Amino acid sequence: MATGKMSTGAAVRLAARKRDLVGVTSGLAPSFLQANLIVLPSRYAIDFRLLCARNPVPCPLLAESSQIGSYHSLKSYIDGLTGDEIASDLDIRHDAPRYMIYRDGQLATSHVTDIATEWTEDHVAFLIGCSYSFETALTNNSLPPRHTIMERNVPMYRTNIQLCPAGVFTGSTFVVSMRPYKRAVVERVRDITRPFVTTHGEPIAWGWDAMEKLGIEDINKPDWGDAPLEVNGQSLDSANEDVVPVFWGCGVTPQEAVMRAGLKGTVLGHAPGHMILLDIKDGDVFSV
Amino acid sequence: MATGKMSTGAAVRLAARKRDLVGVTSGLAPSFLQANLIVLPSRYAIDFRLLCARNPVPCPLLAESSQIGSYHSLKSYIDGLTGDEIASDLDIRHDAPRYMIYRDGQLATSHVTDIATEWTEDHVAFLIGCSYSFETALTNNSLPPRHTIMERNVPMYRTNIQLCPAGVFTGSTFVVSMRPYKRAVVERVRDITRPFVTTHGEPIAWGWDAMEKLGIEDINKPDWGDAPLEVNGQSLDSANEDVVPVFWGCGVTPQEAVMRAGLKGTVLGHAPGHMILLDIKDGDVFSV
């Protein structure tokens, strides 16, 4: 999908805003942080902040609207960075390539190009860290994720691993992203991704025996993103003990939480894989 | 057990140090914070801090040794409080009433009165928040935990809920404490305990149907603490839909993690229920 590269996160946001972008943002502006989006009616904001604080691995909170109703400016949760430094010249209603719309806890519309007509003065946007942020580091260590080689979206799955509940957010479970790796390099993959603490960090599970623990039935049928393909074009096969699935917390988790909690009103999110790019780079946030 | 009360956390520490204390510390110095203890060889400190950061509900890190080998002074992780304010005149080797000793990931000795001969210059102590800290609030809201009425230790259970792994800490699961409540008051109990974010906060699960989800087979056979008793002296009965178990994250989780990870060397911890009292009070930390 993303064959070309763009020079900055701001350039990606502007292209999305002008509807010049097609496809997912994985690897689109290398080393610039990408963010998951969830937009909630303001009455749910306190509970959502607590959900993030209690579940920082799937829900690492980077920033939120500077005030209720603001889609132009951010309040930062990253030490040493202001909201303007995270993203200036921002329009959250247009800057993701594609969006999801939820009504009363149900997905109503998928992959729309903007949410300008849905946004109200009562909405609060939250930006959540994205695992795309450590893919550059994996690639730089000669361990490029398969889906980036194959130019596909990363596969994402519902699991039965409970989130710690927070107020109205009960009954939620982790969403995970998956990248297959040779069993022999899993410890290196853990080491490389461990420092990325606000973009999901090290994996939460790995190996074929993790499938049952997570409650994932078929690795080749993800709930979001593209089915995983080996570099030879083959599907993943659990009979192949040499290549194993590696699972990370995923920032689609808040969208799943909104559905599990049956939140009333209109909730907005990015389409999985179609992220909002930020102005900050890995090196601004992580010691890697 | 703890029928009398003591005036301060410091008084409890001194009594433990002089071996004048028998029994668990629940409710012993009302409103003073109590802490779980884990003492690790220094080579595991970085991974343990990350384990806490990734799992703040069972493992809320309050403070650690001010430097490797220090049992007298603390480095604080609580905003606005210094280590000395958390506990001065401290001796971590003596100030819990009872301790556990682990060797090479196995429990070696249980309920010893001090760890002076086990402590080395390579050990680092970590203090973790304790759910006893919200019991005063529950009591003040006319919802005293059953075990405090019955003067017993709170029951604690192993679960199959995964911790997010961190470095050497893999394969760990939540330990939970349990307090039974009438079904009708569970939402009030959630509300009352929610603000206590660094002492486990609101429950992670409740109701009889939570038993299977957590992997707890028999509510009347806890892994630590005393079996739960109703105020009439009866055991809990899942046939009684009116009274349900309510489960919180528990600071014994790090001791379980040490065993699951099979850590080499000597690891020390408090005996469950026999906490280290601090100099700070609920109101110093929580807005309640």
Textual characterization of the structure:
- Two copies of one chain form a homodimer.
- Chain A is α+β, with helices and mostly antiparallel strands and 288 residues long.
- The first copy, chain A, has two domains: 148 residues, PSTPO5379-like, CATH 3.40.1640; 109 residues, PSTPO5379-like domain (PSTPO5379-like fold).
- The first copy, chain A, contains nine helices and twelve strands.
- In chain A, strands 1, 2, 3, 4, 5, 6, 11 and 12 form an eight-stranded antiparallel sheet that branches.
- Chain A starts with 8 loop residues before the first helix and ends with a helix.
- The mean pLDDT of chain A is 94.
- At the A-B interface, helix 2 of A face helix 2 of B.
Summarize, please.
The structure is a homodimer of 288-residue chains. Chain A is an alpha+beta fold.
Itemize the secondary structure elements and their pairings:
Two copies of one chain form a homodimer.
Chain A (H helix, E strand, L loop, with lengths): L8 H9 L14 E10 L3 H10 L6 E5 L8 E3 L6 H4 L12 E5 L2 E7 L10 E7 L5 H6 L5 H4 L6 E7 L10 E10 L3 H8 L11 E2 L3 H5 L28 E7 L3 H9 L4 E5 L5 E6 H4 L3
Antiparallel strand pairs in A: 1-6, 1-11, 1-12, 2-3, 2-6, 4-5, 4-11, 7-8, 8-10, 9-10
